[in-house]
């Protein structure tokens, strides 16, 4: 066997047998708590109408996955909940040939030869998640909840990643959240989005777990403790903001924010995320260094060769004159930060805030077709290949080594 063939060989995890069969729809039992891994909203009638019509027009294309019940002659649904509820919705809508005793195609999972009951149950659990992931990708919220189940079932990492359809880096971030119970609860309860929680806990854990403490700023500061305290303080402020917003809405005859609209994550901006990442990396208490007003925080990472410009959504009816002034100032700060990068690339060295502002003035004048005739503070920056320049800098520092 060649090296390439060996490296691409896929390891077989499951050991169950599968039997193709046809059974009646009313022979199927559903346990949504155990085997349905989608948010409830995706199984509502209005979400299934199109699927029901497709099942009626084209017929069932993919079997449901079931196991035999241990207590009756029924079958327990393992995967295919949207298709199952699509059949039921079709019955309610009176679609042709839809009935409780209609025939449906199924794949019956059975214990493999010599397979233990424990291994078979793990196969059943993993199949229930992987089948859902393959049919319609989970959203980030569903992936986190299912990652928790897979970790609780002690499913091997590579197999769990395959079931969720994620890469190792993303699965590791989910594990960080799952292993931090207060943060997992915060995500589930809508206080912070999964992606934001993952980025922050990753920074905190990497600092706390670093073996070489000389590479960590303020190495004696425990980042996870810093993160939890800062987050809890912010939650208190966000709850007060939510109450104030609902009082304002009531005074202006508007409906209060409820359900998902009332999730505190609505107040967690991308600017705050970048600010907290910086605080965690430096080991600074969140209340020692606050953004203070609107900040359009760009993130320039010359090690990863990335320039991150966050997306920010602001509702105009929530902005008064003073808040708009803050927004204009925050945008100006962001533009200055990016303009400074032009000079850094040209000179191959950092610049001061005054030089960054000067560079912005040059860019504006060039854009308006009125280039400055005399500007001796900063050489006019030329837009070059940023990645190539920085890579060249690295190469020169390393003595030309690749």
What does this structure look like?
With 402 residues, the chain is an alpha/beta fold. It has 3 domains: 13-136, Conserved hypothetical protein from pyrococcus furiosus pfu- 392566-001, ParB domain (Alpha-Beta Complex); 180-288, no CATH class; 292-402, no CATH class. It contains 15 helices and 7 strands. The protein has helices at residues 3-8, 32-35, 45-58, 81-92, 117-135, 140-152, 157-164, 168-178, 181-188, 194-209, 223-251, 270-282, 321-347, 353-367, 386-397; strands spanning 17-24, 28-29, 64-68, 75-79, 103-110, 299-301, 306-308. Strands 1-5-3-4-2 form a 5-stranded mixed β-sheet. Strands 6-7 form a two-stranded antiparallel sheet. Helix 13 (321-347) packs across helix 14 (353-367). The longest helix has 29 residues, at 223-251. It starts with a helix and ends in a 5-residue tail after the last helix. Residues 1-7 and 372-378 have low confidence and may be disordered.
């Amino acid at each position: 066997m060649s090296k390439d063939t060996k490296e691409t060989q896929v390891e077989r995890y499951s050991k169950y047998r599968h039997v193709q069969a046809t059974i009646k729809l009313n022979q199927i039992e559903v346990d949504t708590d155990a085997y349905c891994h989608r948010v409830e909203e995706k199984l509502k009638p209005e979400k299934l109408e199109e699927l029901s019509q497709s099942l009626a027009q084209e017929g069932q294309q993919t079997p449901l996955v079931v196991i035999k019940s241990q207590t009756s002659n029924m079958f327990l649904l393992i995967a295919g909940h949207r298709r199952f509820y699509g059949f039921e919705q079709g019955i309610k809508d009176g679609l042709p040939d839809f009935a409780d005793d209609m025939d449906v195609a199924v794949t019956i999972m059975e214990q493999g030869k010599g397979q233990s009951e424990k291994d078979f149950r793990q196969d059943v659990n993993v199949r229930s998640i992987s089948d859902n992931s393959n049919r319609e990708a989970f959203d980030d919220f569903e992936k986190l909840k299912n990652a928790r189940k897979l970790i609780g079932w002690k499913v091997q990492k590579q197999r769990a990643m395959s079931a969720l359809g994620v890469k190792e880096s993303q699965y590791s971030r989910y594990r960080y959240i799952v292993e931090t119970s207060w943060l997992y609860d915060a995500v589930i309860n809508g206080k912070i989005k999964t992606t934001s929680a993952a980025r922050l806990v990753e920074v905190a854990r990497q600092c706390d777990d670093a073996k070489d403490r000389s590479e960590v700023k303020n190495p004696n500061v425990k980042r996870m403790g810093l993160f939890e305290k800062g987050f809890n303080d912010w939650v208190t402020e966000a709850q007060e903001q939510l109450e104030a917003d609902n009082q304002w809405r009531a005074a202006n005859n508007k409906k209060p924010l409820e359900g998902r609209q009332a999730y505190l994550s609505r107040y967690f901006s991308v600017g705050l995320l970048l600010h907290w990442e910086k605080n965690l990396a430096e080991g600074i208490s969140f209340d020692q260094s606050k953004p203070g007003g609107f900040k359009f925080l760009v993130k320039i990472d010359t090690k990863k060769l990335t320039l991150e410009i966050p997306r920010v959504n602001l509702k105009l009816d929530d902005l008064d004159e003073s808040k708009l002034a803050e927004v204009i100032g925050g945008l100006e700060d962001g533009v200055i930060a990016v303009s400074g990068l032009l000079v850094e690339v040209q000179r191959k060295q950092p610049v001061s805030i005054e030089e960054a502002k000067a560079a912005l003035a040059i860019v504006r004048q060039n854009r308006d077709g009125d280039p400055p005739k005399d500007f001796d503070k900063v050489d006019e920056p030329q837009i070059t290949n940023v990645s190539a320049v920085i890579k060249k800098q690295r190469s020169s520092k390393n003595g030309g080594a690749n």
